[in-house]
Amino acid sequence: MNATPPDDRLAILVVDDETLIAMLLEDLLLDLDCTVVGPASTVAQSLALVENGGGTLDGALLDINLRGELVYPVADVLAARGVPFVFITGNAQHGIDPRYAAIPALAKPFSNDTISDVVESFRERRARVGG
Amino acid sequence: MQHVWKRHWSFRYGVAVTIFVLAAALRLFLEARYGAIPPYLTFYPATIIAAVVCGAGPGVFITVLSAAFEAICLLEPRGGFAIERPSDAIALVVFVVMGLLICAMAGALQRIKEREHRLIQRALRDSEDRYRLVITSVKDYAIFMLDPQGRVATWNASAQRIKGWTAEEAVGHDFSLLFPQEVAQAGRPLEVLRLAAAEGGFHEEAERVRKDGSRFWADVSITPLYDESGRLTGYANILRDISERKQATREMAESRSRLAGVVDSAMDAIITVDEDQRIVLFNAAAEAMFGCPAKQALGGPLGQFIPPRFREAHAGHVRGFAETGVTSRAMGKLGTLYGVRRSGKEFPIEASISQASVDGRKLFTVILRDITERKRADEHQSLLLSELVHRVKNTLSVVQSIAAQTRRSTAPEQFYDTFAGRLAALGAAHDLLTRSEWEGAWLADVIRIGLQPYAVSDVAERWTMDGPAIWLAPNEAVTLSLAFHELTTNAAKYGALSGVNGTIAIRWQVQPDGEPGELAIHWREHGGPVVVTPSRRGFGSRLLERAIAHELGGETQMHFDPAGAQCRFRIPLSPRIRRQP
Predict the structure, then answer these.
(1) What is the three-class DSSP state of B77?
(2) pTM for the complete prediction?
(3) Which residues form a coiled coil (chain A) (predicted)?
(4) What confidence tens digit (pLDDT) does each residue in B92-144 have?
(5) Looking at the partner chain, which of A19, A20, A109 has a beta carbon nearest the beta carbon of B393?
(6) Do residue A20 and residue B393 have CB atoms under 8 angstroms apart?
(7) Does A30 touch chain B (CB under 8 A)?
(8) Which CATH number fits domain B266-370: 3.40.50.1220, 3.30.450.20, 3.30.70.1150, 3.40.50.150?
(9) Across the interface, do A19 and B543 touch by the CB < 8 Å criterion?
């Protein structure tokens, strides 16, 4: 967790209650030249990170179910701030909140390519928005 | 007495001649006594009597005989047929004409009487024939007469068929032989007759016996018979064998009580309603299901047990069902049905309906099952399934992560062993959780499964542990299992378990300062090779630090004391890590 990421690195919030999965995501993101914000394992931690991270977040990977707590409050804040995000879910069949039907949901377990595609889409988004 | 005119002609003529002789004698007697009397005086009545009594033929014969006798023997001159005076001639002619007329009338009268007689005879014969035919041909009714003393007087074919005795065997016997012995001995036969005479008739359904001794149920009617003077002449008995009807009645009663037993002991609610949806049957299960005693439900509308919003539609469905004429079908094809208890609480039901027509009255029977429990179980099952899918996917991700981490931190030749060891630790943690149906696991068990392979050495117990009972939620149990697996593996490679004398002591306690308290675990190795601080951090220490910090919100301190490695965890207690399960 670098305190001040260089400008060309994407700052990506990782929210997952499972340490090993968070570690995996962290490693994958580091390999993709990203800076990991978090990982957070609860909604409260996530919201605190979003607040502190200010406008510097370039994307987020959100596990939907955090020990029975749903991640949607975090998604709401991110959506309000215009930060792109994707969901991670263990059970794709289990409905995602219809409000976020348009948001991609990555099914566990995920491949490296899936994550790199997501990061690529975050990068394009930053290029488009940030100029 | 037989009429004279029906007798042989010689008899009739004999009688006629006798009448003539009497008339002639009377004629002569009167003449001798009183002198001249009017001619034919006694012959007129003689002719009439002869014609009426003996018939037209003898009448004519007497007329001619009388005329000849009067003319020849009595009129002057006597002894020869000589009519000298015109008055004599007129008298003769008048007598003959009158006589012949009387005879003609008598003949006509006789013919009329004969015809009438024939008709009456035939009618009588016909009526008797019919009566006999009825009595003998009545199949199901034994009809027999008793004399005033109760002895059998007549016995028809059905009586023989029903009771077994032939007419010859029965007639003359006291009818008490038709009664069961104990009933006969109690004086019932005479009582029956007495009642029949007193009431003008008697009727009962009672047991009777057959000739072979078998008993049967009979419908008995006894009517006393009287002659014109009011004297009792006997009794007419009509008896019918109603054993089959009795049997049918008994079977129906049995079947009804059996059905009642089934209905009352059924686990499902059974409700029958009439065409107006009024409840006519409400069994015990229905009472329990709707919380309403049958007494209060009967006669009331079915609608009271249907949630208001479904009542209209339900009535429509029942009407539609009635029109189909189908005898039974399951309900609720269009969705879950609901009932409403007396308390107002709705509950899901499964129902089937059947209809039957009794005397043009339609009855609908609904069989209901409260499926609250089943629905709950179904929901629980689908929840479990969904959780299982989630858990499997999550576990695959964990495995994926372990593989990735292992590859990063391990030399390729050690990869397989290390990876397999970590998977085994994961598997052991799952086993532990399966035992509690994934409710959680004890901290002591989590530590033990990692150290189990090193339980015993040649010299001493290799490890000890001590601490209060701490319950871990599933994810926490898996994470700590993997953490302790790493500590154990390190100890086996470089630390206390690598030699033969080393030991490990694990102590934990809950520090009560502050709420909700903190779990402090101290892992301390002793007696192993001299410890050197590792040059780079491996997966194990990274996992320990990260897992404890990230997932459990605690902190880890590794201390590589040359005398033995030490590790301290401080983890805040929470509902997921707590003192009691």
Answers:
(1) coil
(2) 0.55
(3) none
(4) 888 889 889 988 988 888 888 889 989 999 988 888 888 777 777 677 788 88
(5) A109
(6) no
(7) no
(8) 3.30.450.20
(9) yes
